[in-house]
Amino acid sequence: MINFRKLSIYSILALSGLSAGAAYPLDYEVSLTAGAGSGDFAPYYISAMRGGRFSSASNIQAEASVWRPLDMAGRWGYGFGLDLIGGHASAVDYERYDAADDGWLRHPMRPSSARIQQLYGTVRYRSVFLSAGMREHGSPLLNQRLTSGDLVESGNARPIPEVRAGFVDFQDIPFTNGWVQIQGEVAYGKMLDDDWWRDHYNYYNENLSQGQYYSYKRCYFRTRPSERLSVTVGMQAAGEFGGYTDFYNHGRVWRHEDRSAGVKTLLRMLLPIGEGGESFYVGNHLGSWDLRARYRLDGGHELAGYFSWPFEDGSGIGKQNGWDGLWGIEYKAPGKGGVISGAVIEYLDFTNQSGPIHFNPADWAGTTITGHTSGSDDYYNNVSYNSYAYYGQSIGTPALMAPIYNLDGCNKFLANAMRGFHVGVEGSIAPGVDYLVKGGYRKAWGSGYFMLPAPIHLSSVMAEVTWSPARVKGLSVNAQVEVDRGNMPSNAFGAMVSVKYHGLLNL
């Protein structure tokens, strides 16, 4: 079994040794952030896509990071980074069942006061890289600042310790004369959030998983980007495997399940092998079909249309889940400094889920009911794992309400049958003054297995302004304010102010 924590540390030490006696610049950044709001949680947009930094309504947080960007000159290159966070956040009360007393109690929980947010090292040979450690990853297809979030790896949750390898960028495919390019990555990681799940789980029904591993793979093809029209198409796939699960029924463990995480399992997570049927794969799998078409207008303006279609099994891969997915249009202005430098509008739909029924006639001898084994995809949930979340926050799109918002201690996505839209606009209103506005509406009906008594919804509007004074290079002051109205999870008002300084260390 691979010890990902030790491997990450050893890799970073080795990379540091490569630079012994050399002179090179290091980027560093320090920041202080303070936020306050109503309710239990930070508003939707203030919390989303921030690497799991903010979830509670009120918080104060200091962050310091240092990194060396991956060196792209020459045949070999390397880079590394360290990011530390410390602070205090308001507590949230979660429910827990006490089987001995046959009653429920509330216990306050808050994020850790200090943690390592990122710690990683990367080596490169020509166009291939290998990295180890915890590093934040955004969407490979979408505008990270403006989008509602990638369906597979959005950058919404904390980074998972992992080993990752792939192409540093798109590479020309031989014999295509540069007209077709390929890019891809493969990653294996170890999820270290067992304590969080134990502290937040209700110990009543469903299951509690521990010791899980994580896998990710992606393959994209792109036509020549220098042309007016360029198309990117491909697939992302992620999975959870290994560890063990205790199944609870009214507070009692009625089943225990151990799962392998050996070499054979690692290979099966990369490429399913076996006799066919459900015997050829292991773990909890999900992913998306992705397509993006970008057209460059006169003057350097760009328009792009894109979609991302989710899948949990073969029905989603075969696009039997209707209009489910993320659909978007993006505008990008040439250069920076304009009143509108970028904008996106997105529509999200997760209501089909390949049908509402999951029925296999082989489970019921003599039945005359026609089989339908591809329905109720139940996005981001799985019977043998907690859910597709890390420290309670969605690894994929934050638009689906994650387990961290379940005050009853349920560790599932309870409202993944959801529709909504999202708008993001950014630009400059004066020299050194930039803005970002996000807004949207979401409505959810529950899941294919458990529909809510009544739909829940949320309207959100967030405005952000960043001032970068010309007299102090590297300094920026950011202010955010947001209003949420609805019950997904609740009404909320929040404001946040951050002071940040970025500089260079010449060693």
CA-based gyration radius: 23 Å
Helix content: under 10%
Q: Whole-Å distance between the termini?
A: 38 Å
Query: What CATH first level would be assigned?
Result: Mainly Beta
Largest sheet: 18 strands, antiparallel, barrel
Question: What percentage of the residues does DSSP assign to strands (E)?
Answer: over 45%
* Domains (count): 1
Q: Assign the CATH topology.
A: Porin
Task: Give a topology summary.
Blueprint: H1 4-18, E1 25-37, H2 44-47, E2 59-68, E3 76-89, E4 92-98, E5 103-109, E6 114-125, E7 128-134, E8 162-167, E9 171-172, E10 180-190, H3 194-200, E11 206-210, E12 213-223, E13 229-241, E14 243-249, E15 252-259, H4 263-270, E16 284-296, E17 302-311, H5 314-317, E18 325-332, E19 342-349, E20 389-390, E21 393-394, E22 418-430, E23 433-446, E24 451-467, E25 475-486, E26 492-506
Antiparallel strand pairs: 1-2, 1-26, 2-3, 3-6, 4-5, 6-7, 7-8, 8-10, 9-10, 10-12, 11-14, 12-13, 13-16, 14-15, 16-17, 17-18, 18-19, 19-22, 20-21, 22-23, 23-24, 24-25, 25-26
Summarize the structure in words.
- The structure is a single chain.
- The protein has 507 residues and is mainly beta.
- The protein has a single domain, classed as Porin (Beta Barrel), CATH 2.40.160.130.
- Helices cover 7% and strands 49% of the residues.
- It contains five helices and 26 strands.
- The strands form four sheets. It has an 18-stranded antiparallel beta barrel. A three-stranded antiparallel beta sheet has the order 11-14-15.
- It is globular and about 70 Å long.
